[in-house]
Amino acid sequence: MTTNQEYWRERAKEAMKQEAKDDKEAIQRINDIVDEMVDDIEREILAFYAKYATAEGLTLEDAKKKIDRTDIRKLENKAKQYVDNKDFSDKANKELKQYNTKMYVSREKMLQMQLGLLLTYATAQIESQMYNYMESAYYREVQRQAGLVGATAKVSLEHIQAIINTSFDDVVWSTRIWKNMEHTRKQVNKAVRNTMLRGRHPKEFVPELRKESGATAYQAKRLLLTETARVQTLAQQQHYIATMGKNAKYEFLAFLDDRTTQTCRNHNGNTYKVSEMKAGINAPPMHPHCRSFTVPYVDDIDEELEDFFKKRKGKYKIDGFELEANKDD
Asked: Mean pLDDT across the stretch 242-249?
């Protein structure tokens, strides 16, 4: 093994550890959004029950009664506030604006709309968080790659947006998020109807809601880790091409522990052409939650380049300040 290859492997292992920490923080932010959504839904249901239920509970006849204009106006204002106060995607704003309704609806329908608005708002926040995290992950990887060879990388915003919104397995990540939201909405509406309109207290619905929201958070986590790995693989490929050319090679490096899949173990240490690099085939992510990485592969290096790597061994860190400072070496 060459000094060069040892150097790249050491840097990749450092990066893996740092990325794991960053991923954990991003996942916690998503969990917080989901937890807040569940709390809001619970409060909304309890308020609805307190307002309309009698001593015998809430009957189907009660639920079918029309609401007054004040309740509609409150829903409209909340939806407008969500759109005005956040920088969401066009899809998210479209979903939120549908709650600007002038219709007189039943109490049951109104509750569904109130819960739907909370679900939509949470989904818009998750989508925004994921996009921002993938954007920062791309920048981190470009910065890391450039800093390792004492270079400066410049990437246009349009270029990053195109990479983040590229489909993976024929589906764009944001489409999966909204599809998951629609499934959750149907399950929540079904649970509310089955619980409240059968004369049972809404507290009986809460465990089911938390179970459903737990699945939502897990799906978001899985998607975040998978798509972030895809974005960083593209950043690595572009850097390899820019610095070594399309005929260059890279080495697949698996994160080895008791959770490493056999798929990644099989690829670990293998080398492939950069021109043929493709996520899910011979580059991360090979599967959901994939933590593998890639490093440049160089067969031969001259004495000058070897000296370059020896001098920098152990010096470079993932932190942006140190990478920037080492460019003046």
From this structure: 81
